[in-house]
Amino acid sequence: MENVESTDGIFCKLFLILRFESLKDLDQSFEKLGSKLTVFRGNPKEIFEMLFSSKKVKNLFYEKDTEPYAKTRDKIVSDLCSKNNIQIHSFLGHTLYDPEDIIKNNGGKAPLQYSKLQTIIKKLPKIQECVRDPSKSEIIPFKDIDGLLKLIKYKGDITIPCINELNHKNENNYEKPTALIKGGETEALKIMKEYLKDKKKAANFEKPKTSPVAFNPVSTTTLSPFLKFGCLSVRKFYFELNNILKEIPNHSQPPCSLLGQLYWREFFYCASVGVPNFNKMEGNPICKQIDWLLNNPNDEDEKGKKYLNAWSEGMTGYPWIDAIMKQLRQEGWIHHLARHCVACFLTRGDLYVNWERGMEVFEELLLDADYALNAGNWLWLSGTSSFFSAYFRMYSPVAFPKKYDPDGKYVRKYLPVLKDMPKEFIYEPWKAPKSVQEKVGCVIGIDYPERIVDHDVKNNFYLNLGN
Ligand code: FAD
């Protein structure tokens, strides 16, 4: 997958590989227990109607899901179960606490301050232990599934979908993904154990002190895609971490600690359940209504489109912003502070493009793209939600990265066109004399774009407006 030119293809592919690997891993775990993962293709309502027609299905077990699409789907399927006298058993698994319980304990509203969330969860019952692994006798053997399919004369494909079927044209390349992250529970447990092996590091984790430019290894856990897809149980992670915190009582504290990160996850999940139209500006009661560029994605707004396109392709002329977007495009994951920088740049910092457009690009490109976390963090970074008031805190695309990486190693890795640029110009290549640009093979405006806006001018303008 190195040097693949069509970037859209890369993302789609990274995402599909992750899903494919996760399904394969799950299938192998079932196989060890004498069963197999059975995947039906089609509309959930129609598939369940077909299965229920066998009259053999007595119980339906599923994990609660709070995304609007999933809630609608689950309601349709549970109505179908009631009609067919099928017992439904739903379980909390995706979050540590049930968002509905938190909302109930906060007078029917989602807490919109982190400290409020902390106060409420202290009053809730203890987090449930993880469910133990099932034994062979508790798993439906494959012959029973097969029997049911024969009964309803099902002829469709039930194997796990391969990359090709998931609609990728060039399957042959998939052995060499550029993503750092592989899918599946086996891999998730390996990464978690590896990260938690250094108990002191885990106990003293402080998010603002982790580095957005570290790439080998990266500075945070990279567990987000696994948590998103349920490959790693958040409760498993919580209890493993808690055991370490008990051993090292003098540890860092939320919101910056590693446990604090899991509470941020709870915070945004809860907000996404309690706030209508959470992933939109319009109709969202906690979001300021701003006259951004591209409030409507179909607007005939040339400037907005040009800005959004340059940002999303890593062509703004600001090496820090562009390197981050290139990493996102190549690997499907970027550090939290890198997400801060590009989100601030697209919205209140420089380009004034509606945050929903950035959220949509993240949704397409991130391996960990998550309805609640993506929307919640974009609301936060654009400075438009009622839970974020420090709208004046800007990320300079020049001064900020210099603190972490004065030599520009990160930029040189993700923007090879700048690999020989002297370090004094690495974040401001437009300041390099023409002779230097020519010598290092990176002439601004030819080999690398001119700056799309002047950050200093934009920033002063914004601050004046803000005041
Ligand atoms: P770690 O620092 O190791 O944290 C452990 C876990 O805690 C993460 O895996 C994640 O599940 C949770 N977590 C950490 N930070 C946050 C946070 N700020 N909000 C909520 N949960 C958090 N995260 C996603 O998983 N999916 C997204 O779609 C997403 N979109 C984002 C968009 C923007 C604009 C920003 C600023 C942040 C976004 N985040 C998102 C949050 C955060 O950046 C990632 O969860 C984190 O960087 C993932 O890396 P990690 O697993 O190494 O995190």
SSE map:
Blueprint: H1 7-32, H2 44-52, E1 59-63, H3 68-83, E2 87-91, H4 99-104, H5 114-123, H6 142-151, H7 185-197, H8 199-203, H9 224-229, H10 234-247, H11 258-274, H12 302-313, H13 319-331, H14 336-349, H15 355-365, H16 371-381, H17 399-404, H18 409-414, H19 434-439, H20 455-466
Parallel strand pairs: 1-2
Helix pairs in contact: 2-3, 11-16, 15-16
The structure holds flavin-adenine dinucleotide.
Flavin-adenine dinucleotide binds next to helix 9, helix 11, helix 14 and helix 16.
Q: If you had to describe this structure to a student in words, what would you say it looks like?
A:
By secondary structure, the protein is mostly helical. The protein folds into 3 domains: 13-163, HUPs (Rossmann fold); 185-274, Serine Threonine Protein Phosphatase 5, Tetratricopeptide repeat (Alpha Horseshoe), CATH 1.25.40.80; 302-458, DNA Cyclobutane Dipyrimidine Photolyase, subunit A, domain 3 (Orthogonal Bundle). Helices cover 48% and strands 2% of the residues. It has 20 helices and 2 strands. It has helices at residues 7-32, 44-52, 68-83, 99-104, 114-123, 142-151, 185-197, 199-203, 224-229, 234-247, 258-274, 302-313, 319-331, 336-349, 355-365, 371-381, 399-404, 409-414, 434-439, 455-466; strands at residues 59-63, 87-91. A two-stranded parallel ribbon has the order 1-2. Helix 11 crosses helix 16. The radius of gyration is 24 Å and the shape is globular. Flavin-adenine dinucleotide (FAD) binds at residues 207, 220-224, 227-228, 261-262, 264-265, 268, 335-336, 339-340, 343, 362, 366, 368-370, 373-374, 377-378, 381. Flavin-adenine dinucleotide is lined by residues 207, 220-224, 227-228, 261-262, 264-265, 268, 335-336, 339-340, 343, 362, 366, 368-370, 373-374, 377-378, 381.
